[in-house]
Amino acid sequence: MAKPQEKVSFRERLKQIGQVFAFTAKQDKWFVPLLVAAVLLPLSLTVLVVLLTGGWFWLPVGIMLTLLAAVIVLNLRSNAAMMNAAEGQPGAAASLIENMRGDWRVRPAAASTTQFDMVHVVLGRPGVILLAEGNPQRVRGLLGQEKKRLAKVIGNAPLYDYVIGTEEGQLAIRKLRSTLMRLPRNLTGKDVNSLDKRLGALMARPQMPKGAIPKNMRPPKGQFRQQRQR
Asked: Where is this region: Disordered (predicted)?
């Protein structure tokens, strides 16, 4: 479901930037050198222009350009670092979509197995999008089952499906955001709201995870027999 955006205070925003900086510096060895270069280069050029021309009005322009360069480097390198860290992590695709701009309504792990294979259902202006994560052979079957289940309620709405991964025929998670943003807007906002209600009713029906039950979740031997004898 789409979550209403909450206002973030200036102090919280600075804290978020600090966390992003620390995370990116830990993941990317080139981040700090590139950020230093992005700050020093515009400042050096600004100082040089001011000394040559005597025009102090260039100083605020240089400061703004320096801040812009720093923000661009932070944004690009932090996104790349997050994509690298998310590669192969269960649920990473759903988390990425939930933090995208726009009206994207995500139902994480709408279908899953006990082996941590999962299919996320995403609803947006392009239509219904299924994102599968896990073992390629198992998630193909899971995708087929989910398509049949959704066909009961989505009507003529477009249905897209992707298997997240790095193998041939799969969609790399670093390309997920751009891929979804390029999809055509097939639905109106009213269509999305109507379809969201139908999907919500369908998802409210409980589903049993597919696959073998892990040993640590199995009841002790003879338990069912004892219950039947009571």
From this structure: 206-230
Q: Same structural domain for residues 17 and 111?
A: no
- pLDDT by residue for the chain (230 residues), tens only, comes to 444 445 667 788 888 888 888 988 988 899 999 999 999 999 999 999 988 888 888 889 999 999 999 999 998 898 888 777 777 677 888 888 887 888 899 999 888 888 889 999 999 999 999 999 988 888 888 999 999 999 989 989 999 999 998 888 899 888 898 999 999 999 999 999 999 999 998 887 655 544 444 455 444 555 434 444 54
> CA-to-CA distance for 128 and 122, rounded, in angstroms?
6
- On whether both 80 and 107 belong to a single domain, the answer is no
Q: Is residue 224 part of a domain?
A: no
Number of domains composing the chain? 2
Nearest to 25 by CA among 96, 74, 62: 74
What range does the domain containing 28 cover?
10-86
**Rounded CA separation 124/168 (Å):** 26
Token representation of residue 210? 């597919």
- Verify that 59 and 146 share a domain, yes or no: no
Q: Cβ–Cβ contacts within 10 Å for residue 227, how many?
A: 9
60 and 18 within one domain: yes
pTM above 0.90, yes or no: no
